[in-house]
Amino acid sequence: MNVLVIGSGGREHALAFKASQSTKVQKVYVAPGNAGTELEPKLENVPDIASDFDALVNFVKENTVSLTIVGPEAPLVQGIVDRFQKEGLAIFGPTSGAAQLEGSKSFTKDFLARHNIPTASYQTFTEIKPALEYVKTKGAPIVIKADGLAAGKGVIVATTVQEAEDAIKDMLVDNAFGDAGSRVVVEDFLVGEEASFIVMVDGTTAVPFATSQDHKRAYDNDKGPNTGGMGAYSPAPVVTAEVHRRVMDEIINPTVKGMSDEGNSYTGFLYAGLMINAEGAPYVIEYNCRFGDPETQPIMLRLQSDLVELIECANKKELHTINEIQFDTRAAVGVVLASGGYPKAYTKGNIISGLRSTYEEGTKVFHAGTAKNDDGIVTSGGRVLCATALGNTVTEAHENAYKLVDEIAWTGMEYRNDIAYLAIDREEKEME
Predict the structure, then answer these.
(1) Does the reported pTM lie above 0.90?
(2) I want to staple 177 with a disulfide (CB 3.0 to 4.6 A). Which of 181, 210, 247, 278 is the partner?
(3) Rounded to the nearest 5 degrees, what angle is found at the Cα of 16, between the Cα atoms of 12 and 20?
(4) What ranges in 87-203 are assigned the alpha helix state H?
(5) How confident is the model at residue 355, as a pLDDT?
């Protein structure tokens, strides 16, 4: 069978790479893809049609594509699944109604409140005066969120009231995030440790992937501005067996049932960004209607089950027949290599050196913002690569990933040196 993966980032490279390993799959098309997917065996890039639903439908029909996997959130929110379903074409992802869980933070917060799913207290505002008054009443730290899609960067964790007021003015007055920031959600700051909890859903049943934890801040020690993610590791030890049970019982299953009950039945990958407090109680920080990036890279490196078979099972609404998804028992760490200046202004077109054509088992450099020209492989985005490796411990996986990092260079390359530091600290304490 032929598969189409829509998207151009590290997530899509990882999903296409894993889909290509299925014995069912002959070819994986990636629209538009990147330099990494262009060089991958069994993968073929399809440029210029990724945002054109009509062109994608025609391509799927003309190239006998049996399954389409949607990577990024924007086409899901815009209704690509609805369009494909009208055409009778197999596609994996939520409808536009269900994708509101990511497309509108106010929708999600209201949904969580209706169904008594634990999350931070909040208020939603479209006018600046009441928003500023609310912040003065609540104090800091406090969290300001642009309501709509903002590429993972529409969240400001304000440590002072002034910082919160500036963020609100940026969104509601200065239009810093365009339409995404025409409404803001102001919510309490939650204390604890974050984790990424990703499941696949068939409308009624949710089956969890391996847990993970990403690193949103740009710089070491969780300093600097929020980004789309500077690295991730799997599994996340903060999600103990008991926390895992609570997440499924108190968050995931009520969400799946609630969406179905409200007429927005959810099929696809569902990402819950969680805060786990000191007592092990999980709270929803955010929902994403797709796989996380960069969590996809370490999780796909660990995945042993056939990704395409899992998706076909979900599309048939048969996930209840799966006991659990199989993963390598080793840990995985992924380190994002970014363009200098990211998440703000950065240059493109820098030549990347040190990339290998093949990598040994348990290691992989996934491409994101890369392109191929006469000079070779060059940077074309903010997050450029994700150096990913397995290890018998998180510490070992961390060391293996940074060995890959040391091989790569371009002008202005930036990365964090402390990916997975919380898990490494835990391992060191356990050895004492």
Answers:
(1) yes
(2) 181
(3) 175
(4) 100-103, 105-114, 128-138, 161-172
(5) 97
Could you tell me if 145 and 105 are in contact, meaning their C-beta atoms sit under 8 angstroms apart? yes
Q: What amino acid is encoded at 30 in this protein?
A: V
Beta-ladder partners of 272: 197, 287
Q: Residue 132: what are its φ and ψ, rounded to 5°?
A: -65, -40
Give the model confidence (pLDDT) of 145-191 as tens digits.
988 776 656 888 999 999 999 999 988 887 766 665 578 999 999 99
Neighbours of 344 (CB within 10 A): 9
Answer whether 248's CB lies under 8 Å from 208's CB. yes
Can you name the residues that pair with 5 across neighbouring β-strands? Answer: 30, 69
Round to whole Å and give the CA distance between 46 and 36.
13
Q: What is the DSSP string of 304-359?
A: -S-HHHHHHHHHTT-GGG-----B-SSEEEEEEEE-TTTTS-----PBPB---S--
Which amino acid makes up residue 92?
F
The amino acid occupying position 333 is V
Return d(Cα 12, Cα 32) in angstroms, integer: 10
Q: Residue 173: what pLDDT?
A: 82
Which pairs count as long-range contacts for 244-248, CB under 8 Å and 24+ apart, including other chains? 244/208, 244/211, 246/280, 246/281, 246/282, 247/197, 247/272, 247/274, 247/282, 248/206, 248/208
What confidence tens digit (pLDDT) does each residue in 361-384 have? 999 999 999 999 999 999 999 999
Q: Report the DSSP beta bridge partners of residue 233.
A: 213, 333
Encoded tokens for 366: 């996934």
Residue (of 70, 69, 32) closest to 49 by Cα position: 32
In this structure, the strands spanning 206-208 and 193-202 are antiparallel
How many C-alpha atoms does 311 have within 13 Å on its Cβ side? 27
Residue 264 identity (one-letter amino acid): N
Q: Per the structure block, which two tokens stand in for 209?
A: 């992937």
Rg (CA), the chain: 21
Instruction: Please answer whether residues 42 and 25 qualify as being in contact, where contact means their C-beta atoms are separated by less than 8 angstroms.
Output: yes
Distance CA 33, CA 6 (A): 8
Distance CA 38, CA 392 (A): 31
Q: Provide long-range contacts, Cβ within 8 A and 24+ apart, for 193-196.
A: 193/238, 193/275, 193/276, 193/422, 194/273, 194/274, 194/275, 194/276, 194/285, 195/236, 195/238, 195/239, 195/274, 195/276, 195/282, 196/232, 196/236, 196/271, 196/272, 196/273, 196/274, 196/292, 196/295
